[in-house]
Amino acid sequence: MNTKSSSKYNFLLIYFRFRLLPLIFVLSFQILVANAQPLSLANALELCLKKHPEIIAADLAILQSQQQAKAAAALQNPEITFTNPTGDFYTIGVSQAFQLPTVYKTQKKLAKQQIAIQTAQKQVTQAQISLMLRIAYLQAQFAQAQVELYRTPDSIYQKIVENPTRQFEAGQITALAKTYAAAEYGKIHNQLITAQAEVKHTLTVLVVYTGLAEIKAVEPLVIPDTAISLPPDAQQYPPDSASLQYHPIIKLHAQNIKLANWQKKLAKKQALPGFSIGYLNPSDKNTSIQNRFSLGLSVPLWWRQYKNNIQAATTQIAIAQQQSAAAQTELEIAQLQIKTQLQQSANELNYYLSSGNQNAAELATMATRFFMAGETDALVYLQTLRDAFAIKVAFLQSINNYQQANLQWQYFLLKSEQ
């Protein structure tokens, strides 16, 4: 075999390695994952939600509310008096003030509502942290996939750059093609280094979330091979905002409205009269026991202050209602935006699944056939392979875009446990 034919077969080997790139990508990544014992998403979520400071703080807030609820019906301190009714000696008396039983009952209800609010707040915190963890995990998967995707063309261009003399002397590669190959290798190699750094960064983020000492890898990114369909709940446009009423954020605002209503009820109950019972040590030591007790009634004479408290509580209800409406509006706008992103990313991904990847394969096939037939030179051949590889890079990016949009879409479908 002469030098010219040998050179063509060297480029043909490049072509076959390019066509086998998806298979090489899958196999090499499976070997990497098997050796690294990847962290699963389920384990990452479990560790994160167990150790995250905000979750621990939410649990403590619930505990605090439960502790406060035990003192919700606490009585006022008794009053002990020293009096000198005759001017000859002092006597000791004691009295205890009480509010109506409905006041204590309402205070207990209010305390229980505080527990419900803290529980709802914990669910909001869990949902937000879970979304951040899922996105961080996806970014680690994407970074790993990028490394494996760039590794094969990096190796191919490295061989071309390290041994271009024989192809150049045989006339199969021009000085321009030789320079182009070197430039392309530099770019691909830099992208590989960047992807490797991104893997390190994303895994470090997961270390912070999970509290693990080290994470070597995560599970591989799922690469679809057939067209995808939007989830049924995402096919309607505009999306059904009624489903948001079960979202943890909306449920939290609903609990705040309930709290404001209980506060108004308590303000009204506190405006009712109270009473007191006392025991007085009279000046006459021979006074019968039954005549030593006293009964008192507290009259809400200063009605204006109670009226103001009730009005303030009513205003708080209106504030809570408007805050709930504002949260609903913000969620609807965000949901609409994510729905649009989900549709756009799905369309882009389906393009590559239906024709984009096939076009990349056909570009590589035709470029190789023309090059082997002498109809194109090495420069055109390498440029075409570069364009075909760019399609594969864009395909991987479209997977990441769709998965990230889908994660955020699923966040809007969350339902509170309350």
Count of helical stretches? 10
Strand percentage lies at 5-15%
Q: Largest sheet, if any?
A: 4 strands, antiparallel
Mean pLDDT: 85
Give me the strand/helix succession. HHHHEEHHHHEEHH
How are the strands ordered across the major sheet?
Answer: 1-2-3-4
What is the number of strand segments?
4
What ranges have pLDDT less than 50 throughout 5 or more consecutive residues? 23-29
Q: Identify the overall geometry.
A: elongated
C-alpha Rg, in Å?
A: 37 Å
How far apart the termini lie comes to 77 Å
Structural class: alpha+beta
Helix content: 55-70%
Structural summary, described in words:
With 418 residues, the chain is an alpha+beta fold. Helices cover 70% and strands 6% of the residues. The protein has ten helices and four strands, in the order ααααββααααββαα. The chain has a four-stranded antiparallel beta sheet, with no helix packed on it. A hairpin with a 7-residue loop joins strand 1 and strand 2 (91-98). Helix 1 (3-19) runs antiparallel to helix 9 (303-372). The chain is elongated. It starts with a helix and ends in a 6-residue tail after the last helix. Mean pLDDT is 85; it is low at 23-29.
